């Protein structure tokens, strides 16, 4: 059975409660019984029964309509799109054929990459994303800069070459895989927290912004800061290891005096290497 689409205007302007029929029955005026004709009957019970049946029919229609409204796609809603690029469809995120359902993501959508298809791919359209999930295969992602609006779950190798800005406080959960960020990362005043049990998290691009960095992960892997960064927030090591790869990887902050690194966590460590005198 084909059901006609419900107009968007109805969705935004008409609550389901307003579609319900009036609950007060119409006044039914019955004709007085004809006492002169013994075969005459009072029609009031039959009219009331018919009215109740009509009321139930209308209510059933409203319930069907409301159930349809639940499944209607509302423009502007956040969707989750899964990458499944096929031969001949290219490597661009803006190509609809590269996604399950043949629908390309729009800015703000959540993205999933878990198929052995076009492992090197390119953001050519989006300006922001929601959550990001990567699994099963080694991916290399590049392209236009992005605002990050949701947490990351990384279960396989990922090289992220996209310059990024945090749109909210954000957690990157990395498990049993290295994550390498070659693009720049502006924390935009939001805290970045590293979670999971990574083999390595490599920051090969500059981290900037007015907030800090928190390591709170398990295992023997390390978050490696390989460039001189400029972020001005506190570096906190609650658990896991941060390793310096260059001088000034953790910028000295005059506002924090000598306490711009908080390594008070019982499971946290800071590996200075040859750069102990750089700060």
β-sheet strand percentage: 25-35%
- End-to-end span in angstroms? 71 Å
Structural class: alpha/beta
Radius of gyration: 31 Å
CA-based shape: elongated
Q: Mean pLDDT, nearest integer?
A: 80
So how many helices?
A: 3
Helix-strand topology string: HHHEEEEEEEEEEEEEEEEEEEEE
Low-confidence stretches: 1-40, 64-74
The number of strands is: 21
Give your account of this protein's structure.
- It is a single chain.
- The protein has a domain at 145-278.
- The protein is 14% helix and 29% strand.
- The chain has 3 helices and 21 strands.
- The N and C termini lie far apart (71 Å).
- Residues 1-40 and 64-74 have low confidence and may be disordered.
Topology:
Blueprint: H1 8-13, H2 16-19, H3 44-71, E1 80-82, E2 110-113, E3 120-123, E4 128-129, E5 132-134, E6 139-143, E7 146-148, E8 152-154, E9 158-160, E10 164-166, E11 170-175, E12 178-181, E13 185-186, E14 192-197, E15 200-203, E16 207-208, E17 213-216, E18 222-225, E19 235-244, E20 261-262, E21 267-271
Parallel strand pairs: 1-2, 2-5, 3-6, 4-7, 5-8, 6-9, 7-10, 8-11, 9-12, 10-13, 11-14, 12-15, 13-16, 14-17, 15-18, 17-19, 18-19, 19-20, 19-21
């Amino acid at each position: 059975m084909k059901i006609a689409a419900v107009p968007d205007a109805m969705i935004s302007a008409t609550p389901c409660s307003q579609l319900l029929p009036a609950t007060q029955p119409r006044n039914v005026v019955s004709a007085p019984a004809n006492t002169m004709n013994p075969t005459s009957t009072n029609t009031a019970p039959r009219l009331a029964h018919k009215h109740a049946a009509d009321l139930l029919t209308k209510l059933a229609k409203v319930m069907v309509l409301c159930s349809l409204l639940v499944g209607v796609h509302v423009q502007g809603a956040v969707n989750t799109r899964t990458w499944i690029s096929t031969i001949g469809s290219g490597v661009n995120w803006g190509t609809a054929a590269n996604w399950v359902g043949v629908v390309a993501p729009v800015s703000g959508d959540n993205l999933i990459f878990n198929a052995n298809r076009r492992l090197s791919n390119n953001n050519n359209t989006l300006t922001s994303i929601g959550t990001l999930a990567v699994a099963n295969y080694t991916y290399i992602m590049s392209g236009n800069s992005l605002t990050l609006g949701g947490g990351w779950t990384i279960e396989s190798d990922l090289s992220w070459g996209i310059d990024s800005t945090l749109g909210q406080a954000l957690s990157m959960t990395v498990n049993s895989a290295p994550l390498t960020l070659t693009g720049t990362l502006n924390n935009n005043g939001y805290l970045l927290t590293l979670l999971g049990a990574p083999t390595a998290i490599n920051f090969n691009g500059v981290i900037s912004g007015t907030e800090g960095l928190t390591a709170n992960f398990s295992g023997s892997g390390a978050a490696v800061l390989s460039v001189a960064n400029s972020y001005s927030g506190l570096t906190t090591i609650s658990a896991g290891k941060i390793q310096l790869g260059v001088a000034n990887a953790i910028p000295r902050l005059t506002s924090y005096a000598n306490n711009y690194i908080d390594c008070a966590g019982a499971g946290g460590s800071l590996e200075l290497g040859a750069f102990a005198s750089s700060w």
